[in-house]
Amino acid sequence: MRRILAAGGLAMCLALAVPVAAVAVQPDEVLADPVMEHRAREISAKLRCPVCQSETIDESNAQVARDLRLLVRERLVAGDSDAEVIDYVVERYGEYVLFEPVASGSNLILWYAGPAMLIAGLGIGFAFVRSRRRPEAPVEELSESEKTRLAELLRD
Predict the structure, then answer these.
(1) What is the pTM of this model?
(2) Does residue 102 lie within any of the structural domains?
(3) What's the count of helices (H) and strands (E) in the chain, helices before strands?
(4) Alpha helices in 18-106 (DSSP H)
(5) What CA–CA distances, in Å, run from 131 to 4, 118, 122, 127, 135?
(6) Looking at the 3D structure of the chain, how many domains does it have?
(7) Strand partners, 48
């Protein structure tokens, strides 16, 4: 019995460890030409579902994602290059649909804001730690009168 439970537990762990790609592409959407289908999948991996936001259009079950998958395949069949298909989708839906936005124009602020904030934070942290380190004040020797007074206080 213990062996069966151990084997079942091992099988469960292996099943959970194997990444399973969530693909929502329907059989009627798949192109007959495997090369064209591969190109469509590569393009779809670069496009975000406008509804789901964190999923590619291949992973999403939303209707707009299905429409985008069909649109990508239509454009490929029409003879567009990969770049032309992506440009067409971006023109219709905006740059938001790209998982990796182009690093140009106002997007440069977003690309460089993270590293700039990290450097600024490190600088502020360094300055704070450095300001907390104060050199110890030099200890002055007691004068003879102070030594005498201290000795009197300690006797009492």
Answers:
(1) 0.55
(2) no
(3) 6, 0
(4) 34-44, 63-77, 82-93
(5) 63, 20, 14, 6, 10
(6) 2
(7) 56
Neighbours of 68 (CB within 10 A): 25
The token pair that represents 33 in the structure block = 């030409």
pLDDT of residue 9: 54
Quote the CA–CA distance of 29 and 56 in Å, as a whole number. Answer: 16
Domain boundary among 97, 115, 144: 97
Closest CA to 47 of 19, 72, 12: 72
Domain boundary among 73, 97, 121: 97
Non-local CB neighbours of 45 within 8 Å, separated by 6+ positions: 56, 58, 99
Which structure tokens are listed for 119? 């450097």
Residue 134's domain comprises 107-155
Interval 97-151: pLDDT, tens: 887 777 777 778 878 889 999 999 999 999 999 888 777 777 788 899 999 999 9
